[in-house]
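for the writeup, i need someone to sanity check this before i put it in the appendix. the sequnce is what the collaborator sent (i think, or maybe the updated version? ugh). structure was predicted straight from it, no edits. if anything looks off just tell me and ill rerun, i have time this weekend
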Amino acid sequence: MVQDLACGVDVESGHVGDGFEQRSRVRSGGVPVPTRPGPSGSGTRRSTDRHTQIRELAERGVAEGEFSSEDLDGFTVRFAALADALALQRLRQAPPLSTEDAHRHLNRLIETELRQRS
């Protein structure tokens, strides 16, 4: 379940899972740069969908007895914020950040926030 949460985040874009379409342009050197959402509000919808996916994965972990948490709403917000920040750092590479290190940071948050049941 921890791997589902941490590895399900695309640290290049901050998106969760495969259900999100990345709208991007390519800067010189082939680096994708996220674009601003269009007037349709699709960025807000994607953000809401992403929060829902994170929350559902965490709830499933609690229901299956892998995790324990008294604040899944707070965890969802903090996890999404960290994933966004790591995606931005990964994109800018200032300071440099590997995908593996980004997943390690997300795993640390999961281990800290969602106490594993004994």
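The radius of gyration is 15 Å. The first strand starts at residue 9 and ends at 10.
thx in advance!!
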